[in-house]
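hiii so my PI (J.) wants the whole complex modelled not just the main chain, which honestly fair. so below is everything: two entries, each one labled with what it is. i double checked the lines twice but i was tired so who knows lol
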Amino acid sequence: MADLKIQGLAKSYKDVRVLESIDLDIASGEFFTLLGPSGCGKTTLLRTIAGFQHQDRGEIVVNGERIDHKPAHKRDIGMVFQDYAIFPHLTVAENVAFGLKARALPKSEIEARVAESLKMVRLDGYQNRLPAEMSGGQQQRIGLARAMAIRPTLLLMDEPLSNLDAKLRIELREDIRDIQRRLGITTIYVTHDQEEALAVSDRICVMNKGNVEQIGTPFEIYRKPLRKFAASFVGTMNFLPGRIEGGRLIVGTQSAASPANESGPVEVAIRPENVQLSLGHADSEAIALKGEVLKVTFLGREAHYTLKTEVGEVVAQVADPEHDFIEMEGRPVEVRLPLSKIVLFRSNGDVIGAGQA
Amino acid sequence: MMKRRMRFDIWTFVLIAAWVILIALLIWPLSSVLHASLIDNETGAFSLTHYVQIATIKAYQRAIGNTLLAGFGGMAGALILGVTLAFVTTRFHIYGRALIQTLAVVALVSPPFIGAYAWIVLFGASGVVRKGLATIGISIPPLYGAAGVILVFAFKFFPHVFLITSGALAAINRSVEEAAESLGVSPTKRLFTITFPLILPAISASALLTFVLSIADFGTPRIIGRDFNVLATEAFNLYGSEVGGNPGMASALSIVLIILSMIVVFGQRWVLRKNVYHSNLIKKPERKRAHGLKALGLHVLAYAIVLIGALPAIIVVLFSFRRTSGPVFQPGLSLQSYERVISTVSDPIWNTLIFSSIAVVAIVITGTLIGYLISRRPGIATGALDALLMVPYVVPGIVMGIAFITRFNEPPLALTGTGLIIIMAVFVRRLPYSARSVAAALKQVGPNLEDAAVSLGYSPGKAFLKVTVPLIVPGIMAGALMSFVTAMNELSSSLVLYVGSTITMPVRIYLSVMDGEYGTASALSTILLTMTVAAVYAAFHLSGRKESALL
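here's the output for the full assembly
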């Protein structure tokens, strides 16, 4: 059990600032995810915590003790790698025992922990196999067992699932989450896959260009984005140009009472699942745009409508679509944007007020 | 705010130690050669006279031209033979692969001088094969001059190419080739557009090696070249002559020789400037089974290459059992050559074994550490070290020998006449081969593996020992093997550095050939050959991976 505090962490490669003064506060037992596009600095941050890279400035504190002066091998941090990094010359059991041997544990203890770790990742019975005989998913399970076997103070995972196929990815991420919960180990997880981040995390840190954009629970990140970047990176979001004038929010030729008391140009953001099509729903306050259905994508439990409106294209998501909704391409339709679901951003990317996405 | 600390780990120490070793054993001795080339022999004053003479005297210009011809010719021949053999044996099912590898190693170690001598026995003016062919009406020119030298180089040096490229060929991700095939590229085209570019590091490294070996070799042009003078023979003659010697001129020619090699080295680096291929999930290439005529052709091709390459060694072994009378071989079989060797000249055998073993242990340890530095700790100091390591590649053994004898002649480092000086020369000459083969093997091991070990609690040094070393053992073994084989067969530097009590087998063989004691030379060569082959098999056995130790 360990908590982690990071204060003012910064790093540059030559002239490029990869991390700009990062502050994080991760609670003991938390599953904390660094989410961002490639090049945002998330892997650098993770490798700096692990001790494989060194910050120019700032502190890394685990359980009240600074660890940034310690070499990587003395930090007691388990790491799971994107390319698994399984030792190809050692058997499955030897891989898992590897870190335990460094700790000079008695043989019986090592055997017990290896068996326990392999059982945990559902690989018992594979002890004497060589990694080359195993699938990618199994190799990553070895990687997980190997990192967990040393009972590290922190578990770091660097895009552990990105080399696996979709189905395995979902299966293994559930396993990772279950194991992490059961052991209560503080975990920092790096991914660029927002769905994965939403699925496994207690809290998510959205990063962009070496900066922290937002830290929050998956619900907060998805529903209450604080910056336009987080809103656009996590999930799908429609952005429409608008402005606020005299207490009215104006989008194209339509307007409604403004939820925010500012004025000037704004970006109107709304999730596809909150866009309403048609006919009823006159009860809620909404901006109603005239639109035309350009394209319908049927995905089984839902359908995506690409709609042309006077202010640009809008994507709407309709759950459990009816038969006749499918055949709507080319038809005119009313596109309603409920005010309660709209998020407004200033032109600098900051959110206005506290609307709900 | 935290200040950036210097991180001082085991690798910093290795880097410093490597620099100290190379400065003491390389820069400092070699500076004596440069110095000698720049002073007038008589007055001892600074002078460019030797270089002016090289630029104006025709014989020297021809030597430069001949050197380039021999270098590029030997390289091209060795590449064609070596890459062909590597490709055939790694991609097709060939019966007796172990035999082919053995014969290639035999060709590699076929002792210097007597090897060239054996070629003359076969294809010289009154060569056995040439005469035999003449009786059935086929006339071939005698094996002298440029063509002969190039041919001998090609068959002498192709095993280097074979060993280096077959390792690379066996490590290509099969999916890449399959992808090319699925994109509609014919197998032949694929070879040139995918396979060869992927093993370009190996091909260009072996090209460089064979070029440098070709231009540094002075035995072959001396025996087979006749009036085909090259820089190495000119320099050797000027150093070696008791009368009419010209150390200044010889030094200047040596410097020119070094510069020629340097140019090729930089050429190779330029070719490789952006060739770093990492591959983690290796799907190894398969050996296809060829059928019918194709199978026959492939077998004939493979066996022809290695058999011709091993021919000098085979001849030497056969001749060692022939009855001799003085320098003349008589009809009939006899062990008298061996009796003479054992009764009179057994010292060289022990010297060779002891010197080579010590040198190889030092080479493997130092080479592994330096190879790691080069491939995993890039930086200015390591880059410069890597560049400096190229120097022994390009310095002919004779030059290295003279440099050592000049520098280690006086107290406190009066090492002339000791075994240590011979060991040091071999060590510094062969160190780059070991470092390079380790660096090449490391390129196949993902750096994350070591990070994983570190995260599990191993210090960087231990992580290297526990994870990286076992994975690069085939590379290290191949390097050690090459080093041991070349150390035992080292002639040129030892020829300068030996005294009576430190004489080695190659030197003894050379002297025997020069004295016309062909029987003794053949017997000694056979013993050397046997020891070498035994070493190769011991290495196979110890590494526990018969194929990968060599391949």
